[in-house]
Amino acid sequence: MFKQTALTSVDSYKLGHADQYPAGTTKVYSNFTPRSEGYFNVPDQYKDGHISWFGLQGFLQEMQEIWDSTFFNLTEAEFQAELKDIAEIYAPFCGPNGFNLQRLTDLYNLGYLPLCIKALPEGSRVPVGVPVLTITNTVDEFYWLPNFMETWMSAELWKSSTSASTSFVYRKIIESYADITGGSKEFIDWQGHDFSSRGMSGIADAAKSGAGHLLYFTGTDNISAVKYIRDVYQGKSTFIGGSVPATEHSVMCAGGKE
Q1: What is the separation of C-alpha 222 from the centre of its chain, rounded to a whole number of angstroms?
Q2: What is the pLDDT of residues 153-187, one digit of tens each?
Q3: What is the pTM assigned to this prediction?
Q4: Under a CB-based contact definition with an 8 Å cutoff, are residues 193 and 221 in contact?
């Protein structure tokens, strides 16, 4: 069975970047920035040039756990075996000079990720073009590490924020039609309901995406999203989301036409 590890969470080309920075580099300061809402397929009057920033704390906890369990907490023999496996997989992709695996050994010997991440508060509405986080190294020799992490951070952080941003706009649309029709504003919490689990790339994806939805609605059948907020965002002291008993085709058809 495949198991995600710290060293499988990076694009292969990242392994060669340490040697591509200018000689004498000691610090890399990077950012994660929402760049456009041009592909957001809603009427322009519902766009305000902002995104909903969400998902960082969950990612950081997961990242720390995976780095500890699959890298820093390995025995020396286990680490060398993992390093050998990675070297065999990535060697053909790293160019003629390969990658200096001593850097990974030095990081293992350091015993922690020498990174400083600063971020805007989760749940913030952030203007497009404004960085939601920055990341830099805190030990000079690991200047290559901030952008080494970029693949993993990008893969994990875009979805929750995109789902939250979409739900924010859906709520605005529903509220505008409630004004037009005299509908109940109190019921809107439940009208934007999440049945998305079956359309996600696995249940972990459903949890993180559905958690973004729950920033603006309480209606959900996505149990994993509610559990994610309870466990990762200390959500056990408040009501997060819920649903009602419901039927489906197989149930309705089981008794025949009658």
Answers
A1: 17
A2: 999 999 999 999 999 999 999 999 999 999 898 99
A3: 0.89
A4: yes
Amino acid at 159: K
* Model pLDDT for residues 44-65, shown as the tens digit of each residue: 888 899 999 999 999 999 999 9
Per-residue model confidence (pLDDT) at position 91:
66
pLDDT tens column, 204-241: 999 999 999 999 999 999 999 999 999 999 888 889 99
Contact 219, 210 (CB under 8 A): no
Residue 244 phi, psi (nearest 5):
-135, 160
Closest CA to 107 of 79, 135, 136, 78: 79
Q: Spell out the alpha helix ranges (H) of 192-256.
A: 203-213, 223-232, 249-253
Which residue from 220, 248, 78 is spatially nearest to 228, judged by alpha carbons? 220
Yes or no: say if 57 and 233 are a contact pair by the CB < 8 Å rule: yes
DSSP state, residue 220: B
Helix axes of 56-67 and 223-232: crossing angle, nearest 10 degrees: 80
Could you say which DSSP state residue 39 is in? T
> Could you give the count of Cα atoms lying within 13 Å of 48 in the half-sphere of its Cβ?
14
In DSSP notation, 179-192 reads HHHT--STTHHHHS
